[in-house]
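The following record pairs a protein chain with its ligand, iron/sulfur cluster.
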Amino acid sequence: MPDLFSKQLLQWHSRTPRPLPWDDGPRDPYHIWISEIIMQQTRIEQGTPYYLRFVSRFPTVQALALAPEDVVLKYWQGLGYYSRARNLHKAAKVIVSEYHGRFPDTYDRLLKLPGVGPYSAAAIASFAYEQPYPVVDGNVKRVIARYCGIRESIDQPSGHKAVSMAAGDFIRGVSPSLFNQAIMNFGALVCKPKGPLCHTCPVAKRCFAFQNDVVESLPTRSKKKSNRERYLHFIVFRQKQKCLLIRREEKDIWKGLFTPPLLETKSTRSPSAKQLRAVALKLLGHHDIHLVGSSPVVTQKLSHQTLHGRFHFIEIHSAPLTLPEDGAWVSAKKIAEFARPKMVAEINLTR
Ligand code: SF4
């Protein structure tokens, strides 16, 4: 017998449809997987155009596996968290080579794919195969911690376990895909982080937090996310309406994407002429350069870091003697073919 909470949740869901992008066709695990990974980092409304573009370029797992990584990253551009795109690509190759292109259909096998954790495995297992695995994301943790009165910190294993166990009980006896979709939507639309709609909430009568007036203090978290401030200076070398881009190989943000050469310092203050000449000498083999201007600071927040970026535009007077490894001189016409982080893609580098 389904729990009353699950029944009421599904009734609410039937009155409040919020289709996911893959909802209008057959349940295809490949499409569900792509959609879930994209929606982990963006709202459905914002993520849907990215999803549609991605699956139209890579309509099957085989197409994704065969594509060069640069092209995959290009189609991910704007979504951030590029390691997720690289993992999608790696996992597609594994599915093609080890599973002959057939998507794994058990939770445990799904978990073995690169980049697939418990959340994604549960989403694919439930949405594609109707297996009773609850998805436990931030929305679900909040709803269940409040409804059940779970006081353990949800960012700690004990809190996560308590929520997962309760979710596992609630999903029994109902359609796993409907339940998971319903509770995620409910967390996004009703039991919101701030200003939850308790007075019209269909489960308020049995909600611990509402009945005990502790909605504002649940869920609990034990630690504040640390934030790192970073100051990134992009050195835009230009010659003959082309700019120099280099593929980032470091184990850091934006791995595999193209940016102008980057100098990281401790402030937004422009690098000195000596520093710029040193970069030029290292990359171009000479330092016959002329700084023509710098951009204002652009700021971008990532989950654990705040990036402060500035672009310094430099004309070079003598032909470069060397070309850095993974570097390319790129014209305005060609630049769209290079996957760049959002901060870089928004600046006109070649003008
Ligand atoms: Fe969330 Fe309020 Fe509903 Fe409880 S009553 S589940 S806190 S919206």
